[in-house]
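Question (not urgent): is this output format expected?
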Amino acid sequence: MSTNLKDLLRTADLSKADIELLLDTAAKFAKNPLRSKKALAKKTVAIYMTKSSTRTRLASETAVAHLGGTPIFLRGDELQIGRGETISDTAKIISGFCSALIVRTFAQSDVDELGKYASVPVINALTDDDHPTQLLADWLTIRENFGKDIKNRKFVYVGDGNNVANAWLIMGATMGAHTVVATPAGKWAPKTAIVEHANKIAQKSGAKIEVLTDVRVAATGASVIYTDVWMSMGDSESDRAEKMSALKPFMVTPELMSLTATDCIFMHCLPAHRGEEVSAEVIDGPRSVVWRQAFHRRTTIQALLYHLTKGDLKGNV
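Got this back:
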C-alpha cells in the first residue's frame, strides 16, 4: 500500500524533503507560471471557503487556471452543508466531480474530516489552528532572500500566538532552523502542544526552538521579523481591549527593526493594520518583502496541486 501523502491537512504533514520539492517547483512556477499548463487540463478543483479571503482565493483560482484546470469557488452558505448535510457526504460528492479540494475554514476538525472522506487531495488553506499554505509561501520568500544555507540565522515571529505562529514553529522545526516566537505570556501564547510538537521535530532536525515573552531579546540579531494581525477572524470582540493592551509592546517599529541583523527582512501574511501590529514605516519600507510573500501564495499552491495530484509527496511516515 502506498504511503504517499494524499492531503495537506497540517504543516506537520510535510517532511523536509517534501518542502524542498514544493519550493523548487514553486520557484519554477514563479519564473514560468504556464510551464505545466496541461497538468489539470479538463479537470476541476473545488475551492471551499467559509472565511473571507483575498490572497488565498486569488492565489488558488489562479493556480488552478495556470495548471489548465477550472476552479469552482464554493461558499458554505451556498452548499447543502449549510443546511445540515454532513461533511462526510459533502466530501464524497466533491470527490465525484473534482480532482482536488482547497478549503479555508474555522475548525481544524472539519478539514480533517474532509480529508478522511474525500478520495481526492484536500489542501488546508487556513484553519484556526494552522496555515500550511502560508508557510510554504513564507519559506520560498526566505529562500529567495537568503538561499538554502540558514546556518547562523534566526527566524522570528512576534505578536499573537495564533495559527500562523503555530505553523511558523512547526515549519521552522522541520527545516532545521533557529525558530523564535515572541508573544505575551498566558492566553495569547502558542499552545503548549504545538511547542512540544515543534521541539520533538527539532530533536531530529537540529532546529532550535525558542518561545519568548521579551520582544527585544527575540528581535536581536534576527534575519526575519514576521508578524500578523492581532485580532484574527473568529476572535471574540470582548477580548479586544485586553488583547490590544497585552500585544502593544510587540508592535514592529523601526526601533525594533534596528535590533535585527543588517540584512533582516520584514514579513507579514496580510492583511495588515498599520499602526497596530506594524508601523507604516516598516511594512512600506525597504526591508519589507510582504508583496513578494503574497505573490508566492500562488506559486506554492500551484506546486501543491501539481505534486499532490501526482502523488509525489511522501509525508512524515
